[in-house]
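Re: beginner question about structure tokens

> Can someone show what the tokenized structure looks like for a real chain? I only ever see the sequence side.

Sure, here's an example I had lying around. Input first:
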Amino acid sequence: MATDKPFGSLPKNADSSSVKPFTVEFPEDEVKRMIDLLKLTRVAEPVYENSLAGDDRRLGLRRDWLVEAKRIWETEFDWRKSEDHINSFPNYKAKISDKLGEFDVHFAALFSSREDAIPIVLLHGWPGSFLEFLPLLSLLKKKYGSPEKLPYHVVVPSLPGYGFSSYQPVEHDFAQADCGRVIDALMRQLGFGGGYVAQGGDVGSRVARVMGVEQEACKAVHVNMCLMTDEKKMDMSALTESEKAGIERWKNWRATGMAYAIEQATKPATLGFVLTSNPLATLAWIGEKFLDWTDEDPSIPAILEAASLYYLTACTHSNIWSYRHSFTAGSKGHDHPDVFIPKPMGYSLFPKEIQPAPVSWVKQTGNLVWSNVHDKGGHFAAFEQPELLLGDVEAFVAEVWKK
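And the corresponding structure tokens:
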């Protein structure tokens, strides 16, 4: 079934019986409840740790920032405008039958009417969402103008447990390989069983790499983060000065910035109750990451949009499943350097990535045929530098997709 929006007609081979248009529209009482809770919630009083001199955030989120963000959320921020923006793109939900159970997977998309259009799936991470890729979709609409000229089918899912996609089954653990299998099923349901390209950052990069190993239809993988859990095996001698500086920043992050990951990996149930209980808790937990992991601080409204989505969709407890499989002792998934990706692989390195693996290291994890190193941008590449990431994805696809 097609939507009435431009770029909204499903590919002719799609299973239209299980893919339905979706509109974002929360009941007014849910939005009001979020704002009422904000107004009733107190901010911790000033102490040394939350009130360091200048703009120092080395001990965590600053109180002055949180007070101002809370004020804007309560009095100026309009979630309905965010809904209007989301709904300006074609959105859908697809029913996916998997060995672990049934999933309702939300996705935004731009579909081409060209016979030779190349399918691309863009995969977000934590604490991100499909919202990260909306600027990139806007660029594509502006650049190509119509479905007849768009050379790609671009699919942007909410990963299971995130946003408008359903939770993982209660009876089963859920890991990157499971997520990759569900996303592959989505792509095949859309008619792309003959092949597609997967792109991702953060959790999305891990899922894309899993798909590159395990899913036949995934013909190529592009990532803008390449987690390496045993970099001691890597050669340090040939690194550039900027790469060495990135490794030092990576080491510092592991020493001072990984506490959240260990908590999410080892005690996700307890943390989930805390984060779900109150929108200000959600904002503090993810807002810190948007501020610390970007090249330049995002605007407060941009972070509030992300926090609102997390809180309104009640996904703050269900979207941290991947950490248990990457940050606990003995885990060894497809983001381990000993696991080689045989499909053509591309890599974009943004300088303020929190785990900036040098290109020479990434070559040891897969069949790296394309790479690019940028001089600006951070962990949320699609959100921070959509033009640069889009250019990289298009260049990589042109390199590897040979008809």
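Each token stands for a local structural state, so reading them left to right follows the chain. The two ends are 28 Å apart (CA to CA).
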